[in-house]
């Protein structure tokens, strides 16, 4: 069954995906870290809906895809294996169609990041202004398209966070900032969480974790992107740009900081960002 690797965009999802694929699939650490990323697929994407809905139908009305989400997850789960799947979708309903259900989901790993940092990171990634980035983060009706026909309902940062926080599925929340300062222990807790749901346990080896953390350090990922490129990079900027937690303090205007803090006040306090 599925364990979701979920987050609002630019919150560290790809970093955790790199850690997991490197630890689980990159034997002897000889291969480029990025070469294994697709072992954790993204949802919604074409692979999940093949044989369920024709792309020509989605070209006419891509919003119809939401009604096939659970059917697609049933298809993924037919082999009864563990499937860790990345998503930026809210864990809620769109047009009265649920994102998932308890028959198809074992749990979720949710990466949460200070929205002030996301505002900066997303602006650089999408090559837009900080003002536009903040506007997007507050858009409760935000839907992004993959390949022009595969919609992902992201909504606002607040609704996204609450949708995963309040869902009754088993979950582990990882703060980006703690992942940055204590990658080893955060990643170890993620592996422990996954082990709760599988019979054949993942070996949790501190030496292997140390090697994985080093291999997937932000500096190393940034260097690899410069050398080999990266399919998920932004517009005119590297995907792994800085990854710093306090850049927003100097990048954002006082007005924008106040706007974010007012809109997301309760959530900032709950996660000790404020």
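^ structure tokens above, recovered residues below v
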């Amino acid at each position: 069954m599925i364990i979701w690797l979920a987050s609002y965009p630019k919150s560290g999802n790809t970093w955790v995906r790199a850690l997991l694929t490197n630890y689980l699939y990159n034997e002897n650490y000889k291969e480029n870290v990025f070469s294994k990323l697709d072992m954790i697929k993204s949802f919604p994407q074409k692979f999940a809906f093949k044989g369920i809905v024709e792309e020509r139908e989605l070209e006419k009305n891509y919003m119809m895809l939401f009604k096939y989400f659970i059917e697609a997850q049933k298809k993924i789960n037919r082999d009864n294996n563990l499937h860790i799947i990345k998503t930026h979708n809210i864990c809620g309903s769109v047009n009265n169609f649920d994102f998932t259900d308890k028959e198809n989901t074992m749990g979720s790993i949710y990466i949460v990041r200070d929205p002030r940092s996301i505002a900066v990171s997303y602006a650089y990634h999408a090559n837009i202004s900080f003002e536009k980035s903040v506007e997007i983060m507050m858009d409760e009706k935000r839907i992004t398209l993959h390949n022009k026909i595969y919609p992902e309902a992201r909504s606002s940062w607040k609704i996204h966070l609450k949708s995963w926080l309040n869902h009754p599925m088993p979950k582990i929340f990882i703060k980006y900032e703690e992942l940055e300062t204590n990658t080893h222990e955060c990643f170890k807790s993620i592996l422990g969480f996954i082990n709760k749901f599988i019979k054949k346990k993942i070996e949790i080896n501190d030496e292997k974790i140390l090697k994985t953390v080093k291999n997937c350090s932000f500096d190393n990922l940034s260097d690899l992107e410069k050398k080999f490129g990266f399919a998920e990079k932004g517009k005119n900027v590297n995907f792994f740009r800085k990854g710093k937690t306090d850049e927003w303090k100097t990048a954002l205007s006082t007005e924008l900081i106040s706007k974010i803090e007012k809109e997301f006040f309760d959530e900032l306090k709950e996660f000790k960002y404020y």
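The chain has a mean pLDDT of 91.
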